[in-house]
Write a structure and sequence with these properties.
Layout: H1 6-17, E1 31-33, E2 41-45, E3 50-55, E4 63-71, E5 89-93, E6 98-100, H2 103-111, E7 118-121, H3 130-138, E8 142-143, E9 145-146, E10 149-150, H4 152-157, E11 162-165, E12 184-186, H5 195-199, H6 202-208, H7 212-233, E13 247-251, E14 254-255, E15 258-262, H8 267-274, E16 277-278, E17 289-292, H9 294-301, E18 306-311, H10 319-325, H11 333-336, E19 340-344, H12 350-353, H13 358-369, E20 382-383
Parallel strand pairs: 4-5, 6-7, 6-11, 7-8, 11-12, 13-16, 13-18, 18-19
Antiparallel strand pairs: 1-2, 2-3, 3-4, 9-10, 14-15, 15-17, 19-20
Length: about 375
């Protein structure tokens, strides 16, 4: 999944032959950016570049990728005395012709005021971003097709200077994408185990687009809002309760014959706790999903007070339709009491926003778990029709 940038090779070769370029001492001390929540990302600022190290979330102790962010105005940069960076990917910043394969990253780019630097997207049909669609229509952004089979010729034609995509374990690499000489930026933020940890990756993305100040400021807003809600309504908060005895929440629904519930160390489980709720798998030690049969769901979480899930349909969800999907749903307490909420991600920009605005999602959870607190209407979720 790693590759050596052809640009880096050219830079090193030219600088080794030059005698007037500024040299970076091997012992130079950089300024490390302190992350509060992100566990898989490290940024160190040096005089002429920023070194970005991504930990491999699937192989503890190993590196997923190393990047060197070099501002366009630092033409005299030399990395010749840094052999440890020989396999790093050089990215010239700020990116001017970026491509995003993920709707959440495209949303963040727009939020940071860098939409004019986004020149290509994949999976456009899944993006609920009016500005992106308008720019595609106007020819200012290229539609690069399916993210699993992108239009390589179009990527070459638009002269992209960076492709943001989400890596997957054992993906086997990126095929022809690795051959066109465009830096592949592996956005592994979704593997963070906390919602704020994932959101904090915006500090890295901001530096890619020359929007470091905007990204740092936005994250400070998100962090402050999230912590304010957690302290006021979360477990052991002034309005909260003990997570083992609070309002019980069930998430997701069957996929085929399997119900994938978030593990106890997942960001979803942490959000439920932060909202002052209880969760049947809160004591589980997994950060990923647990694949369970319906019988286990009924036994451990059938008594939940609130049930939430994502739905992608052109038609509104109803209790009759839900029962028709699977008759066992009618045995769940929240179904019987009509306390089921869903988000239609075909029509609501849920996946666009919640990755980098977990404070908005936390507010929704609090409203669903504690409607008596009077926080208003949810931003994403709606009740199932009678």
């Amino acid at each position: 999944m790693k590759y050596v940038s052809t640009f880096l090779i050219a830079v090193l070769s030219s600088l080794l032959c030059a005698c007037t370029h500024q040299q970076v001492s091997e012992g130079e001390q950089g300024d490390t950016l302190q992350f509060k929540y992100a566990e898989n990302l490290m940024l160190v600022d040096y005089q002429y570049y920023t070194e970005v190290t991504m930990q491999d979330p699937w192989n503890k102790g190993k590196i997923l990728h190393t990047y060197v962010l070099v501002p366009y105005d630092k033409e005299d940069l030399s990395l010749a005395q840094h052999p440890s960076l020989a396999e790093a990917t050089v990215i010239r910043t700020p990116l001017q012709r970026a491509v995003s394969f993920n709707t959440a990253h495209a949303y963040l780019i727009e939020e940071l005021g860098a939409i004019h630097q986004l020149k290509g997207v994949a999976d456009l049909k899944y993006m609920l971003l009016p500005e992106v669609h308008q720019r595609v229509k106007d020819g200012r952004i290229f539609d690069c097709g399916d993210s699993m089979m992108p239009d390589i010729e179009k990527l070459i034609a638009l002269q992209a200077d960076g492709i943001l995509l989400s890596p997957f374990e054992n993906s086997g690499g990126y095929g022809r994408l690795e051959e066109i000489g465009v830096p592949i930026i592996e956005c592994a933020d979704y593997m963070e185990t906390s919602a704020l940890g994932r959101a904090e990756w915006m500090k890295f993305y901001g530096r890619l687009f020359g929007k470091a100040h905007e990204a740092d400021s936005l994250f400070a807003t998100v962090d402050s809002a999230y912590q304010g809600l957690r302290k006021a309504y979360g477990n052991n908060g002034s309005h909260g309760n003990n997570g083992n005895h609070g309002v019980r929440m069930l998430t997701e629904k069957l996929t085929g014959s399997t119900w994938y519930v978030p593990g106890g160390k997942s960001s979803v489980a942490q959000l439920i706790a932060a909202a002052g709720g209880s969760y049947a798998w809160m004591n589980d030690k997994h950060s990923g999903s647990l694949a369970l049969p319906f019988e286990t769901i009924l036994e451990k979480a059938g008594n939940s007070d609130v049930w939430i899930f994502n739905d992608q349909s052109e038609q509104p969800m109803t209790y009759d339709r839900l029962r028709a999907e699977y008759h066992g749903y009618a045995m769940l307490k929240p179904f019987k009491e009509h306390r089921v909420w869903y988000v239609n991600s075909l029509k609501v920009p849920y996946f666009e926003q919640v990755s980098f605005r977990p404070d908005w999602l936390l507010r929704d959870y609090i409203i669903l778990l504690h409607p008596e607190q009077g926080l208003g209407e949810p931003k994403y979720y709606q009740p199932i029709k009678e």
